[in-house]
UniProtKB/TrEMBL annotation:
Residues 57-306 form the G-protein coupled receptors family 1 profile domain. One of its GO terms (biological process) is cellular response to lipid. InterPro entries: GPCR_Rhodpsn, GPCR_Rhodpsn_7TM, Olfact_rcpt, OR51/52/56-like. CDD domains: 7tmA_OR51-like. The chain crosses the membrane at residues 42-65, 77-102, 114-136, 157-179, 213-238, 259-279, 285-308. It comes from the Eukaryota. The keyword Lipoprotein does not apply. Keywords: Cell membrane, G-protein coupled receptor, Membrane, Olfaction, Receptor, Sensory transduction, Transducer, Transmembrane, Transmembrane helix. GO terms for cellular component: plasma membrane. It comes from Terrapene triunguis (Three-toed box turtle). It is a multi-pass membrane protein. This is Olfactory receptor. It is found in: Cell membrane; Membrane. GO terms for molecular function: G protein-coupled receptor activity; olfactory receptor activity.
Length: 323
């Protein structure tokens, strides 16, 4: 009798452990565009085109800047940093986005999801820093053109790039570490085709107040601080141009492409942050579209904007294809 009771207790204990482990699902389930599953294959066509154009455009700029000594200037080196960051962002998002729309591959492991959200956040943080460096570059070029090359030397630019990467790693690395300590006991179905910190955090069954506070800290330290510093840089540029009153249009024309890149990067990102924190009643489709725009639009449009506005760069690219 006691042996049967012990066996029953052991069976119940193992069953309980099995149920508990089934709740701690080893996978997240990604989602494409809800309600449009039947046409996902057709939706994949514009996504594939965006990826191809973005990868080719950024790769061409990197190749031209590397092989042409006349482009070894601070402005084009910072543009190369931007291109590398955009390529990294494309590589980080392409497997899951195209996997869903082309192959209906929706499952992603916890570790892969945490790694993806880390790299997405990291690369966006680095891109924000690079845009800030590019604003500083334009300020130096207009404020002190005679000392421009001596101030922004190649070793100094390399140190700036290293600081951007280290700053991003230091700020973003706690995110997956904080998420990894949670228990996930819900359906774990995400509403995007890639992993986002805010959404993965909502799947947790634990108290996420620390993550919420740290998420706000990251937003203030990167998006808000960098955008304010970029704004101050352009205020100083305008003051310099107005005070000098010489070649104003030509000086400001060199900033147009950078201003476009700043607007393309920050506008959807700010809207998305506001919607996730305050727009609880907003349309889920709007959140999904803004998410795709914030990830895929900057890598797509940055090469186009800089090729259109920079005659020197455009001439070098045309020369490659003409040969």
């Amino acid at each position: 009798m006691s042996r049967s009771i012990s066996s029953s207790f052991l069976f119940f204990f193992l069953s309980g452990r099995k149920v508990q482990n089934s709740l701690d699902l080893p996978m997240f389930i990604l989602t494409g565009i809800p309600g449009q599953e039947d046409v996902h294959l057709w939706i994949s066509i514009p996504f594939c085109l965006m990826y191809v154009i973005s990868i080719v455009g950024n790769s061409i700029i990197l190749f031209v800047v590397k092989t042409d000594p006349s482009l070894h200037e601070p402005m084009y080196i910072f543009l190369s940093m931007l291109g590398i960051t955009d390529l990294g962002l494309l590589i980080a998002t392409m497997p899951t986005i195209l996997g869903i729309f082309l192959f209906n591959s929706r499952e992603i492991s916890f570790d892969a999801c945490f790694a993806q959200l880390f790299f997405i956040q990291l690369l966006q943080c680095i891109e924000s820093s690079v845009l800030l460096l590019m604003a500083f570059d334009r300020f130096i070029a207009i404020r002190d053109p005679l000392r421009y090359a001596s101030i922004l030397t190649l070793p100094r630019i390399a140190k700036m790039g290293l600081v951007c990467v280290l700053r991003g790693v230091a700020v973003i690395l706690p995110l997956p570490l904080l998420l990894k300590r949670f228990q996930y006991c819900r359906a774990n179905v995400l509403s995007h085709s890639y992993c986002m910190h805010q959404e993965v955090m909502m799947m947790a069954c634990s108290d996420t107040s620390v993550n919420n506070i740290y998420g706000w800290f990251i937003t203030v330290l990167t998006v808000i601080l960098d955008s304010l510093l970029i704004f101050l840089s352009y205020v100083m540029i305008l003051k310099t141009v107005i005070a000098s009153n010489a070649e104003c249009l030509r000086a400001l024309n060199t900033c147009v492409s950078h201003l476009c890149a700043v607007l393309i990067f920050y506008t959807p990102d700010i809207f998305l942050s506001v919607i996730y924190r305050f727009g609880k009643s907003s349309s889920p489709l709007l959140q999904i579209l803004l998410g795709y725009i914030s990830l895929l639009l900057p890598p797509l449009l940055n090469p186009i904007v800089y090729c259109v506005k920079s005659k020197h760069l455009r001439a070098r690219i045309i020369r490659i294809f003409v040969k």
